[in-house]
Amino acid sequence: DTAVSQTPKYLVTQMGNDKSIKCEQNLGHDTMYWYKQDSKKFLKIMFSYNNKELIINETVPNRFSPKSPDKAHLNLHINSLELGDSAVYFCASSQVGVGQQETQYFGPGTRLLVL
Amino acid sequence: AQKITQTQPGMFVQEKEAVTLDCTYDTSDQSYGLFWYKQPSSGEMIFLIYQGSYDEQNATEGRYSLNFQKARKSTNLVISASQLGDSAMYFCAMRDDDYKLSFGAGTTVTVRA
After folding, report:
1. pLDDT for B57-89, tens place per residue?
2. Which residues of chain B have a CB within 8 Å of the CB of A8?
3. How far is Cα A20 from Cα A86, in angstroms, rounded to an integer?
4. Which of A4, A18, A90, B41 could lock A35 by a disulfide, CB 3.0 to 4.6 Å apart?
């Protein structure tokens, strides 16, 4: 009964490879997000989708491409991986609303290590 | 630009005592939401407590409470009766009008037996 799930949990790959991370939420939320947590634990928003529409696109290299096939899924594809992409990537979801309804719930994270 | 400041990189607290984690924010928005998350060593992000900018009362959730001072733009988290399981990193975050969450740098809490 996991609310927000991500696969894989760990991803070790070589520089230059292309990889994808998948995210699914069963909370019925209409908005999903990708965050990156760097080695200093700093968390920063990358993208957000609302009902399959991209609404937030921060300054992220265009090697990163999100895709939302439906409002319960948000995937992240990364092309030509670089050493600096090593981080923990979190998916989150929320319901756009008022008050605590807008709380974002996070997945367990995907630990990406680029060698 | 939104900014969240957590000035305490790390704190130690004795088991069963209370600890206060500081958080100040900077925004020109009238409507915003403030959140605290816990990240234990296992890595997941756990939502703890929420305070809305229009809420007049301080939020409380079990052993967690907020000291929300809107004029000072601060929302400090108080953890009462600390337990060993409270040892973790704690993040303050703010939701702005664009529904983005901006996070502080975090505070590591270590509870001593």
Report:
1. 999 999 999 999 999 999 999 999 999 999 999
2. none
3. 14
4. A90
